[in-house]
């Protein structure tokens, strides 16, 4: 089901939405999605993982990051700090006892929760991939764009990347953000099996990966 949760934002508090499998059980997993297009490519696999976790007695919650999906907040006003604060609010609202982060979600996860980090991604690498995709698209359209010049523009005035209008704060945050992993268990793609869905051009289901990830999560989370 879809559940609303109160979320702070640059223009004040709004109601954001989360996919929720909630039966009031002891194990309550907050899932912090991957960032940008990687969130779209992995969502079907994560939703199926949530269904499997539900069958094993684990509640789970997949909130939208402010400015993304059905959010009413403006994407351009977002920052890594703002997303981190939002995920802390979501964790409290859903009474999460543990966390699962997907790829770049590790950069905005609540640091107080134990749990699992799935194939963590570094902010500079994410930003580099976004800039590279833009320069390739420009080249195919007969234009020449320079990555360094684009980055300088992004630091001061924001930048259009992958269909998103990034504000300067989000660009600056990504440029320096590294995962801070303490007690969380790290799962790399080799344990899940198959190729990373974030590398595919289109969203896809991956039932075997969902089943594998659900088993790893259920085995890791305390009863």
Topology:
Elements: E1 2-7, E2 14-21, E3 28-32, H1 37-55, E4 59-63, H2 80-93, E5 98-102, E6 115-118, H3 123-140, H4 147-157, E7 159-161, E8 164-166, H5 168-176, E9 185-187, H6 189-192, H7 207-220
Helix pairs in contact: 1-7, 3-5, 4-5
Entry summary:
The protein has seven helices and nine strands. It has about 220 residues and is of the alpha/beta class.
The ordered string of helix (H) and strand (E) elements is: EEEHEHEEHHEEHEHH
Outline: globular
Secondary-structure arrangement, i.e. CATH architecture of the largest domain: 3-Layer(aba) Sandwich
Per DSSP, what share of the residues sits in E-state strands of 2 or more residues? 15-25%
DSSP helical segment count: 7
Main sheet: strands, sense, barrel: 7 strands, mixed
Report the end-to-end length measured between terminal Cα atoms.
24 Å
**Superfamily (CATH H level) name of the largest domain:** Alpha/Beta hydrolase fold, catalytic domain
How much helicity do the residues have? Answer: 25-40%
């Amino acid at each position: 089901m879809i559940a609303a949760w109160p979320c702070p934002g640059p223009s004040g508090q709004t109601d954001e939405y989360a996919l929720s499998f909630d039966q009031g059980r002891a194990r309550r997993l907050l899932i912090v999605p991957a960032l940008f297009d990687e969130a779209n490519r992995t969502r079907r696999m994560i939703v199926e993982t949530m269904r499997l976790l539900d069958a094993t007695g684990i509640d789970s919650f997949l909130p939208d990051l402010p400015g993304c999906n059905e959010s009413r907040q403006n994407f351009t006003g977002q920052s890594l700090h703002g997303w981190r604060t939002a995920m802390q609010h979501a964790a409290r609202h859903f009474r999460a006892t543990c966390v699962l982060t997907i790829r770049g979600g590790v950069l905005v996860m609540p640091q107080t929760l134990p749990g699992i980090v799935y194939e963590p991604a570094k902010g500079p690498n994410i930003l580099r991939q976004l800039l590279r995709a833009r320069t390739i698209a420009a080249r195919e359209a007969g234009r020449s764009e320079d990555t360094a010049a684009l980055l300088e523009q992004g630091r001061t005035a924001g930048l259009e990347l992958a269909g998103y209008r990034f504000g300067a704060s989000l660009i600056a945050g990504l440029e320096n953000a590294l995962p801070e992993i303490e007690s969380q268990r790290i799962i790399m793609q080799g344990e899940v099996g198959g190729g990373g869905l974030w590398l595919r051009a289109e969203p896809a289901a991956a039932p075997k990966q969902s089943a594998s990830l659900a088993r790893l999560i259920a085995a890791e989370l305390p009863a």
